[in-house]
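Project outcomes to date are best conveyed with an example. Our students and postdoctoral researchers have been running inverse folding experiments weekly, and each run begins with a structure described purely in tokens. The record below, which covers 299 residues, was selected by the lab manager from last quarter's runs and is presented without edits.
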């Protein structure tokens, strides 16, 4: 229920953002789907709800609000606190860099470290982005990494695979938004099962990688995401094992594999002591995304 005191006392955008921060902190919300603190999330939800530019808060802080705008803000704050929905599900959008994607609860909220690497065209590991002719995004979800791959490598035909037909429906919408239907193919497949005979210059994947202990401790916000997109066995590596077992037969001789594995670096290196993992630098560190060349993968 909307707080009647807030409805009558709060006047400006500044007032509403302050109120939202207080509500979010008081509710003990978890922030991990695009922002990492109550202020940023309050500012984002406020600007989005008011149809204001997301990168220009200052000019609007002292603007007074219409009655309908106040109601809309109080409602979205309430839903964030009471339903513990990630902000992306409330706004139906998620951002990777400057790229916007439609999302809803049929897909995990995009937050892959691979995105920043694709925005740099995987430099220096790929010397000539125009030489990449074929690419695969395994576990595509909303299609965000497949789309970023297509944008980074303009000559590539990209296959985007997911086991969830619901996720592929969301991905189809995003592919259409970016007008990439002519060279981005959505494929319903359990891992590589529907890709017999296909080979790629580049395979990227942000697969499920949360271990069982961490799944049991997930905050409520994460429980709104598709379960199959999060957990991957006791150590979080069940799907990664499939990738490492099958990837070589789907890579060209000079192809490369890029996979995100969360906090599982130690477990992965212990399981594959002879694989020469290259750990890629991201803004969060060098333990979350690995690269392997086709020649180094097991047969």
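After processing, the design step wrote out the following sequence:
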């Amino acid at each position: 229920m909307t707080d009647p005191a807030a409805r009558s006392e709060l006047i400006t955008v500044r007032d509403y953002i302050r109120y939202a921060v207080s509500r979010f902190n008081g509710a003990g919300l978890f922030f991990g789907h695009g922002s990492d603190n109550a202020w940023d999330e309050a500012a984002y939800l406020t600007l989005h709800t008011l149809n204001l530019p997301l990168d220009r808060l200052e000019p609007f802080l002292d603007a007074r609000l219409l009655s309908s705008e106040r109601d809309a803000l109080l409602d979205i704050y309430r839903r964030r606190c009471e339903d513990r929905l990630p902000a992306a599900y409330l706004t139906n959008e998620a951002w990777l860099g400057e790229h916007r994607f439609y999302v809803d609860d049929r897909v995990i909220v995009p937050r892959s470290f691979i995105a920043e690497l694709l925005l740099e065209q995987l430099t220096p590991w790929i010397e000539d982005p125009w030489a990449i002719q074929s690419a695969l995004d395994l576990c595509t979800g909303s299609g965000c990494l497949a789309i970023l791959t297509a944008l980074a490598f303009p000559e590539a035909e990209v296959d985007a695979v997911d086991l969830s037909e619901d996720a592929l429906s969301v991905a189809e919408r995003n592919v259409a938004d970016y007008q990439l239907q002519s060279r981005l193919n959505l494929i319903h497949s359990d891992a590589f099962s529907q890709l017999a005979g296909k080979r790629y210059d580049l395979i990227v994947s942000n697969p499920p990688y949360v271990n069982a202990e961490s799944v049991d401790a997930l905050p409520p916000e994460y429980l709104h995401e598709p379960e199959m997109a999060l957990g991957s066995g006791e150590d979080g590596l069940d799907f990664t094992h499939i990738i490492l077992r099958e990837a070589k037969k789907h890579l060209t001789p000079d192809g490369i594999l890029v996979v995100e594995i969360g906090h599982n670096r130690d477990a992965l290196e212990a399981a594959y002591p002879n694989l020469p993992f290259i750990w890629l630098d991201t803004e969060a560190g060098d333990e979350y995304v690995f690269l392997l060349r086709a020649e180094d993968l097991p047969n």
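The first strand starts at residue 94 and ends at 96. The radius of gyration is 21 Å. The training component of this project remains on track.
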